[in-house]
Amino acid sequence: MIADTETLVCEDIKRRQQLGLAKYRTSVARNPLELRQWLQHAYEEALDQAIYMQRAMQQMDATCTGAGGCLKCAHEKRRNETYAEPGTAGGWGAA
Ligand SMILES: [Zn+2]
User: Fold this and answer.
1) How far apart are the CA of 57 and the centre of ligand 1, in A?
2) Does residue 54 form part of some domain?
3) Crossing angle, helix 71-84 and helix 35-61, to 10 degrees?
4) DSSP 3-state of 58
């Protein structure tokens, strides 16, 4: 069974809070960074996130033979079905 996702995220946040306090000797709330610096940190982390996701997808896709049955083929099949008919809502979550 898959664990409760929100609970896992909350546990990770708590763990990161403890690591941050140990590393920076202050909480996020008490950290005196300027607003622009917070946004720069978030921006750089978003870039890192995109790189990590692309890397993981490359690894997943590397085993694809094009014969179907893998996650890449399933994704492409669903995407093609979603956008095949003009005038349909399309997008993620569309039936
Ligand atoms: Zn495949």
Assistant:
1) 12
2) yes
3) 110
4) helix
- pLDDT at 87 exceeding the cut of 70: no
Same domain, 43 and 12: no
| Structure token digits, residue 36 | 């622009």
Q: Which tens digit of pLDDT belongs to each residue from 21-78? A: 999 999 999 999 999 999 999 999 999 999 999 999 999 999 999 999 999 999 999 9
Q: Kindly state whether residues 38 and 22 are assigned to the same domain.
A: no
Whole-model pTM: value is 0.68
From the CA of 90, how far away is ligand 1's center (Å)? 22
Say yes or no: 77 and 46 in one domain.
yes
Containing domain of residue 41, as a range?
34-82
Instruction: Say if residue 40 is in the same domain as residue 78.
Output: yes
Give 73 Cα–ligand 1 centroid separation in angstroms: 4
Determine the Cα–Cα distance for residues 78 and 33; give it in Å rounded to an integer: 44
> Is residue 19, in this structure, part of any structural domain at all?
yes
